[in-house]
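Format is chain and fold; as here:
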Amino acid sequence: MPIDEKLLEILACPKCKGDIKLKEDESGLVCETCKLVYPIKDEIPIMLLEEAKSFGETK
């Protein structure tokens, strides 16, 4: 089940407070500004800086 669109509208990057978007494969949430991907585990976004990975680490 994908993340609810209304939830995506209110979530923000914890580092820069900017907008985030869902990755194409729906495995995480992306902050383009910080170049970070926050994982989604059991359909729950993990919005912790300690859990985020840089773009290079997620490929």
Q: What stands out?
A: The mean pLDDT is 90. The first strand starts at residue 21 and ends at 22. Helices lie at 5-10. The two ends are 23 Å apart (CA to CA).
